[in-house]
Amino acid sequence: MIRITEIIEKAKTYLPAKDIALIQKAYVFSAAAHAGQMRLSGEPYLSHPLEVANILVELYLDGPTIAAGLLHDTVEDTSTTLEEIESQFGSQVSKIVAGVTKISKINFSSKEEAQAENIRKMILAMADDIRVVLVKLADRLHNMRTLEHQKHIKQKLIAQETLEIYAPLANRLGLYKIKVELEDLSLKYSKPEIYTQIKEGIKTHEVAGDKYINKVCKILEDILNKNKIKGRVSGRIKHIYSIYHKMETQGLTLDQVYDIIAFRVIVSSIKECYAVLGLVHALWKPVPGRFKDYISMPKANMYQSLHTTVIGPDGERVEIQIRTEEMHKIAEYGVAAHWKYKEDGTRISEKDVEKFSWLRQILDWQKELKDPKEFMASLRFDLFQDEVYVFTPKGEVKELPEGATPIDFAYLIHSQVGDHCAGAKVNGKLVPLNTPLKNGDTVEIITDPNKHPSRDWLKFVKTAKARTRIKHWIRNEERETSIALGKEVLEKESRKMGLNFQKLLKEGNFLEVAQEFSFKSEEDLFSAVGYAKITPRQILNRFLPKEEPSEKKEKEESVQTSSLGVKIKGIGDVLIRFAKCCSPVPGDPIIGYISRGRGVTIHTLDCPNVKRMEPERQLEVFWATEVKNTFPAKIKIICENKRGVLAKIANTLMESETDINSGSFHSNVDGKSEIFLTLMVESSAKLYKAISALQKISEVKEVSRLTMSERRG
Ligand code: MN
């Protein structure tokens, strides 16, 4: 079991005292929290966080990251709370621990390829701080190193998950060393026979010996010396998984895999890299198509190097990588190499650390890429910044755009689930349907066959699928309503015209009419009537006896008179109401206003409300000359509060043949009274005649016709 002193010693080589103190404190806390707990290996549990911290210190990570490594299992496996971690170690450490704990809770039950990619993306998206992923990878690496203590079935599952999720994640972040170790350990447990076979095969391979490696290294070193280039040379057997991968994808046996050894030349400048390449190619014949220049075109994970394969001293293929020290650091540590120092060697400040949006950083690196494939990869990165990854209750990952709601999720699952979505639970709690989903949420949709999409949903859904389906449903729904309404209107009008609608319907008469109007079906025709695109008379006239006098037809075309005494140009029998605000009476200049679903409301032209109306919904209307009805009109009388004045008013109105419909009386302190009356009059002329008669009463000070604004005042 590694000791904390070893970790501290390593940390002291690059971290300030403040960070060392933080690491020490985290160690004490973790030791107390995990006290008494054991690993499956029989070792104290503390050995695990210590090993994780050691992996992190070897990546030269900062104090909070190493402290978080020591504490990473305390919240999940002990009674420690995140609040405690925060109060003891600050928000940076607690955020990293929270992130690692969150990732540990992800259920990886589904094994599809696309699923794996989604989970990888989700982990990256969830961890708004890259250090979360680094601690998680260190955690996984140590668990893989100690996988022998797990049960056989569990070994295979964990190995598979590592291969699908964590090794590609390490690769994406350029953590080459971790990636390689994760891959080899995964192969060891998922395909133990193949692993052993390759391992044994390498030992007996003719070009795998130290002698061979030394020989080639010596030749390369000589080249450097002769040309006065300072640098170092090394040779190593490629990792087992990469050999396995090559055998698998190219269908080769181990004997056919020549380049199992890779040599590396590390020099101090880019110029020297290309110089060494030229010298190597002059000495050994390059294999065509194997030269790759990752210096001018870095990989998406910012890897840079020159790769070439040549025919070596014994006629065998030799792979050589040439790079600078800086490139080597990035090749080994990836994103972690960038963590510690900026390019100019200055340390990243605390503030920068917080601002360090690694995703943006990667995007910046990728902006310089010219290779279309790499560019596509960067585009995908760009895209997934705006994506959210959530789980079904069964643990499947679903991808949604940022801001997507449970409704979007429901439609993603199935159109029927969306159409009958009645409620949603996020992480087990009921939430409003417009709640934006977050990365890692588990979403459960409650359906009810009687529930249907609502127009309101359109205000917050984010996916095209949800939008389209909701609109589709609403259109269908409106169509059904309009068909029913159209039929109803036709039936009413039929009765007025002495026709039997049901009989006409049964005999199939409407299909022919529908076709004349170029509709496909009777229903389309009824729907058009419901939407008032066609008047019922336009249809029903066809069923009237032919000998109908022509004058009736003319009347149909001309202005219609409403039973209430208002004529509207071009419109037949529509529902008419008189506005309560201005109570128009015949003789008043009037205007119609189309109110949705409530017919036409008639206002006086000078009504204050008219000024606020949309002009396109205003309608020219006239009083019919033959009106014999009476209409309500409101007046206000101010008079002296004297005995008998009410009787005088009533008498005057009676003499001017005007009925009082209703009234109210208010007496004021100053001896005046206000009387509000609703009169029933035939015309404005009669109303004003009555008003002037009232004004002649000596106690009456003032009489006025009321509009809404006056009543308000
Ligand atoms: Mn752990």
Overview of this protein structure:
Helix 2 (17-33) runs parallel beside helix 4 and helix 8 packs across helix 10. This protein is of the alpha+beta class and 713 residues long. The chain has 31 helices and 21 strands. The protein is elongated, with a radius of gyration of 43 Å. The longest helix is centred in the C-terminal third of the chain and has 33 residues, at 464-496. 49% of the residues lie in helices and 16% in strands. The model is unreliable at 341-385, 548-560 and 709-713 (pLDDT under 50). Manganese (II) ion binds at residues 48, 72-73, 139.
Structural class by SSE content: alpha+beta
Bound molecules: manganese (II) ion
Strand order of the largest sheet: 1-2-5-4-3
- β-strand number: 21
Largest sheet: 5 strands, mixed
What's the Cα radius of gyration?
43 Å
**For the residues shown, what is the average pLDDT?**
81
Low-confidence stretches: 341-385, 548-560, 709-713
Q: Shape, please?
A: elongated
Cα distance, first to last residue? 88 Å
**Estimated helix fraction:** 40-55%
Instruction: Indicate the proportion of strand residues.
Output: 15-25%
Q: If helices are DSSP runs of H or I spanning 4 or more residues, what is the number of helices?
A: 31
